[in-house]
Amino acid sequence: MLTFDECLKRRMRGGKHELEHNTYLIRKDHDTFAVRLYATDVILIHRDGTFTLDSGGHRTVTTKDRMNRYCRPCRIHQAGFVWKYNIRVWNGRSVAFFDGLRIDDEGQVLNHPAEVESAAKGAGFDLSDPEDRPYFHDWCLDHRPELVAMLEAP
Known about the structure:
Oligomer: single chain
Strand content: 25-35%
């Protein structure tokens, strides 16, 4: 796993540090490092201890491996052809992976797909409030069942 502080300790040559074949640690700006696989920043490591995951549309075994290897709180797995995300402390739940998924250093999801955020806001729910989340889930079951898989999947 790479934390922001660990990234600061890495020796950068030409603005990058090779992690493994076709995978580099890049300094994006003062507050962000990236794990770049080929030309895609698959992990952004933020100074505030959060991580942003993005496949760049390349849902490959190698992309998934780099996310799982360099982002400790992250665990991406695949069911059929669908990527799922669950935290390292396995609680039996996962959410559908989406590009731009942001997590904290314990693996908790900090954002949701735009479609989910919009539906929650329109229905009067605040997804940043842990007490609202189960009510929104129940609301989705009744009103927007297609969103349930984006919230959690057993």
